[in-house]
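Reopening this ticket.

The earlier resolution said the output was attached, but the attachment link was broken on my side. Pasting everything inline this time so it's all in one place.
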Amino acid sequence: MPLQTPLLPLAQVLQQRRDRLAQLYPGPVLLWSGQPTPRNFPANTYPFRANSHFLYFAGVPLAKAAIHLEGGRATLLMDNTSPEAALWHGATPSRDTIAAAIGAIAAYPYSSVDDYLDGAATLPNQARSAGAPAAAVANFLEALVALRLYHDDYALEQIKAAAAVSVAAHRAGMAATPGATTEAQVRAAMEGVIMAQGMTCAYNSIVTVHGEVLHNEQYHHGLAPGDLLLADVGAEAPSGWASDITRTWPVSGRFTPAQRDVYAVVLAAHDACIEAAQPGVEYRDLHLLACRTLATGLVDLGLLKGHAEDLVARDVHALFFPHGVGHLLGLDVHDMEDLGDLAGYAPGRQRSDRFGLKFLRLDRPLAANMVVTIEPGFYQVPAILGPARQSGQYDDAVNWGRLADFQSVRGIRIEDDVQITPTGSTVLTAALPTRPEAVEDLVHSP
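Inline output:
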């Protein structure tokens, strides 16, 4: 397949990563890229996406390949393209050409992978298990997380490139809304921008008037005046690096007073977290800051009763904001979550069973060159609010009658990608406005 970056810079970046791994874990490692999965018959496959850990050290999205790492040295294991495959899919660079491009010391056929299994640490979800002791595998995974938590300059540039395309996609979605009649049409406008830039979606797009369904992947609903459209859409660069943006805008081009009031509360939480984000700050504290800010705003709107600190301590805010304030971002939109909480939670920490904390994906102190999302929200989820109201346990804290004034606010989320810098943070998606007036202008309302 075509190589996406200049050969020498890519090889240097990859070698630096392998050298850093060798300093933390010098033992042998074997990583597979994976291979296309058939949708039905073998030749009709889902779009292929290489394993992210393989990509981190190999740099090229190869299918049915593996890379062996030891002491900073890389060996590529893959087959050359067969004449039959070339007939259908075109010629691709040879195994040796790719090996040279990524700085591998040698390249052998994929069948040689068995020769490199002995004693090699592998990922828990890889197809084959190698012979490294469990303790060695654990050490390797810790080293892998330590490397991928903090992005090098190449990675940051790739994330920024994906973010810029995501910004353009959201602008296109807003502009397309006045002429659209369904969610699908807005989605098409957004994903068309991503495709036109040679990128793919980093995850299944969420473009919905039912923002209370957090990961809604249905696009058949009609658009009507008075609806809010929540779009969570992010591009992924050909190199695999991701972006992640959410905006919520009025289909009519103008927020109603109730919608604007709740939007302002969510935006206040969003802005407070970004302002507070800097090295040494606990991400959990950013989440709790978002919770307190939301609770304060909802008290001011008459939806909640009491003091923000007390409401958050009781997890009352989570009736309307049940998820965490964000996550790691990198080669995956929820970076390294294939490893469970190993990357998201610092050593010795584990998830809380509290309603307001159990969905927190990241519980670490922030540090320079981490990239995280900040995405507070407000949702009226029937499956949460119905039982809560029936239980009576929140009657002293929730003004249930007042909720009727906000029926048009099903879900609002505002999400940006934030790079932690040595002295603070930089919003990588700042080119897409968040102020309600600017959002309205982008919808091109009459």
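Reporter confirms the inline version is readable. DSSP finds twelve helices and 14 strands in the chain. Confidence is low (pLDDT under 50) at residues 1-8.
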